[in-house]
From TrEMBL:
Keywords on record: Glycosyltransferase, Transferase
Coiled coil location: none
Organism this protein belongs to: Alteromonas arenosi
Entries under Gene3D superfamilies matching the protein: Glycogen Phosphorylase B
Domain Glycosyltransferase subfamily 4-like N-terminal: 17-170
Keyword Zinc belongs to the record: no
InterPro entries: Glyco_trans_1, Glyco_trans_4-like_N, Glycosyltransferase_grp1
GO molecular function, one term: glycosyltransferase activity
Protein name, per record: Glycosyltransferase family 4 protein
Length: 381
C-alpha cells in the first residue's frame, strides 16, 4: 500500500474492550511495517483509562455523540478523503466516512453489530442503512467465519475473515507456586478443580447450563470442583436462586466484578474456562468471536464453549479446548466429569491451548491477516 491509513474508531485505547484492542492491534502492525497511520477517535476521561494507545498521530473529537459525529465528518472530509480509512464499526464511523467523501473504506464487522434483530421499524431502518454503507465500502473485514457469513447475506461487497488474536505477553501461564498464591488471595480452594466464567451476567451467556451440568455430576465428583462466576449483570439473582434450588451452592463462587488488572491472574489460576453462549438473533445477542476464550487459552487454561456464533473459530476442538452443542447439559456434565477425574487431560489440553495461541492467535498473527487483506484490496491504491 502506498497511501496513508486512517483508523477511525470511537472504541480505541485508552478505552478497554474488544473493538478497542483489535483496532490498536491493526495500528501496531501497520507501524511495525513502517506504514504511516493516523488515528481519529473520541476523547475519554482519565477514569476510563485501561491501556495505552500506540504511538502515532491522533486526533480526538468531542466525547459527546452528535458533536463527535460532526467533528469526525469535518476531519475526514478535510484530511482523509484519499486515505485508506479503516472503521471500527459500520455505524456511525463508516457511515460518516462515506458521507465525508472517503473513497477507500474498510469496515470491521464483529457480530451483534450487523444482526437484523426483531423486525421493528428501528431495526429495519438500521438494516437498510447498513446495506447502503456496506455497498459503498471496498472491503468488509469480519472477525470470524460466522460474522463473515452474516455480512455476505447482506451485501455483494467483498468480505474477508481475519480471526482475532490475543496479547500473549499479558495473558500467560503461571507457575504452580504463583497459582497457589493467586488462589489463596482470591479465597479459592487449593485442591479443587475450578471452572470459570467471566462475562456480563446475561441469560444468553449460558451460566445456567453450567449450573445444570454441575447438578448432574455424581456427588463425589461434584465435591471436587468449584464454579467461579465473575461479573455483574441482570441475571445474577436468577443464578443464585438456581444454584440454591439445585443444591450446589457449596460448589459456586460468585466473585462479582473483577478489575481489569486482575483478569490475567484469574484466568491463569483456574483449570477450565467455560462459557455456553447462545445465539439469540432476535435480541442481537451472540459471540461474534469470543475473545475471552483466547485470553483463557493464552493463560494456559483450556476452554469449553458452544458451537454458536464465532466460538468455533475461537476454540479448536481437542487442541486446547472443547465444543458442545447449544444447551447440551449432558455433554457438558460428561466433559467436566471426565476432566475432574483425569487431571492429566487437563494438563495436556492446557499446554496445547498455550501452544495454539503462540503459533497462530496472537495480535501479531491478527495484524498479519489484516495486512494481507489490505494489501489485496488496496495494494495498488
Amino acid at each position: 500500500m502506498k497511501q496513508r491509513v486512517c483508523m477511525v474508531s470511537f472504541d480505541y485505547p485508552p478505552l478497554e474492550g474488544g473493538i478497542s484492542r483489535l483496532c490498536a492491534a491493526i495500528v501496531d502492525d501497520l507501524l511495525l511495517r513502517k506504514h504511516p497511520v493516523e488515528v481519529v477517535s473520541r476523547q475519554t476521561s482519565a477514569e476510563q483509562v485501561a491501556f495505552q494507545a500506540p504511538k502515532t498521530p491522533e486526533y480526538r473529537v468531542a466525547s459527546k455523540r452528535f458533536r463527535a459525529d460532526w467533528q469526525l465528518f469535518k476531519r475526514l472530509r478535510k484530511y482523509h478523503r484519499d486515505d485508506i480509512v479503516i472503521t471500527g464499526v459500520w455505524y456511525p464511523e463508516a457511515l460518516i466516512a462515506w458521507l465525508a467523501g472517503c473513497r477507500y473504506i474498510a469496515v470491521l464487522a464483529h457480530g451483534n453489530d450487523i444482526m437484523h434483530g426483531q423486525p421493528t421499524l428501528k431495526n429495519r431502518l438500521l438494516s437498510w442503512a447498513r446495506k447502503y454503507v456496506f455497498k459503498r465500502a471496498k472491503i468488509v473485514i469480519a472477525n470470524s467465519h460466522y460474522t463473515g457469513n452474516l455480512v455476505k447475506a447482506q451485501t455483494d461487497t467483498p468480505v474477508a475473515v481475519a480471526t482475532l488474536g490475543v496479547d500473549e505477553q499479558r495473558f500467560t501461564p503461571r507457575s504452580n507456586k504463583e497459582v497457589a498464591r493467586i488462589r489463596e488471595r482470591l479465597g479459592f480452594p487449593q485442591d479443587s478443580f475450578i471452572a470459570l466464567t467471566t462475562s456480563r451476567i446475561q441469560a444468553y451467556k449460558g451460566h445456567d447450563i453450567v449450573l445444570a451440568a454441575i447438578r448432574d455430576l455424581p456427588i463425589e465428583t461434584r465435591e471436587k470442583m468449584r464454579y467461579v462466576i465473575a461479573g455483574r449483570g441482570e441475571h445474577l439473582a436468577n443464578l443464585t436462586v438456581m444454584a440454591e434450588d439445585y443444591g450446589i451452592m457449596p460448589q459456586v463462587i460468585f466473585l462479582g466484578f473483577v478489575d481489569e488488572a486482575d483478569l490475567a491472574d484469574l484466568y491463569a489460576c483456574v483449570d477450565a474456562f467455560v462459557m455456553c453462549t447462545r445465539e439469540e438473533a432476535g435480541a442481537k445477542q451472540v459471540e461474534g468471536f469470543g475473545l475471552v476464550f483466547l485470553e483463557a487459552q493464552a493463560s494456559g487454561t483450556l476452554a469449553i464453549g458452544t458451537r454458536q456464533g464465532g466460538i468455533v473459530d475461537a476454540i479448536d476442538e481437542q487442541n486446547g479446548g472443547f465444543l458442545i452443542d447449544r444447551d447440551d447439559v449432558v455433554a457438558l456434565s460428561a466433559r467436566l466429569g471426565d476432566l475432574i477425574d483425569h487431571p492429566e487431560k487437563v494438563k495436556q489440553q492446557s499446554e496445547l491451548a498455550r501452544q495454539r495461541v503462540e503459533q497462530s492467535t496472537t495480535w501479531r498473527h491478527y495484524g498479519d491477516r489484516v495486512n494481507q487483506i489490505l494489501e489485496q484490496y488496496f495494494g495498488n491504491s
